[in-house]
Amino acid sequence: MIRFAKAAPCVVALSVVAILAIDPNIAALAADAAAPETVAQATGETTKITWAVGATVSQWADAFEAIAIAAVAFLLRKIPAQFGSILMTMHVDQVLNKAIDYAINMVKGATKDKTLDVDVGNAVLARALQYVLDHSPAWLQSWMGGPEQIAQKIIARLNLAPDAVPDAAAATSKAAQIQQILAK
Q: pLDDT, tens digit, for every residue of 117-159?
């Protein structure tokens, strides 16, 4: 509540400045109000005053839009930190699904809807792990827990036969060997 009390005068001041910047006629009207009143004289048909209602409404709508955007930005700071974690998890899922699709396409005998036996499962795991290591940034790899944890995440998403037990350690060591070769 104290933050809002501190921020409210700033929002009001910015709103007044935005309104004055968008519609300079308001300042002119305020100056006219301070001037002494004069008596209006009768005018003929040739003297008419027109007011651009559409332009004024458009200017006020722009001012309201600026105020609304400032208010939304002020309220967005209240979003919990877990929102960032949710976005990171979605990014990880996307990378892992692409890696598995790539690996299934690259390994002979592997199809998406078919259960994988031990040999094919290990080859798919190694290719998918290598894909993740090659195509994801280092900060995302560390956020996922490193190559061992990434391999476990890939195993969890593979459609393996009941008797197929993939070798995550072999896939991780193979990926480490490839990383060393690429680093040279």
A: 766 777 888 888 888 888 888 888 888 888 888 888 888 888 7
Q: What is the pLDDT of residues 8-53, one digit of tens each?
A: 676 676 676 666 666 666 655 555 555 555 555 666 666 677 778 8
93 in the same domain as 70? no
Alpha-carbon span 140 to 149, nearest angstrom = 12
Domain that holds residue 93: 82-183
Same domain for 104 and 55, yes or no, is: no
42 found inside a domain: no
Return d(Cα 51, Cα 146) in angstroms, integer.
67
Contact (CB, 8 A) for 118 and 168 = no
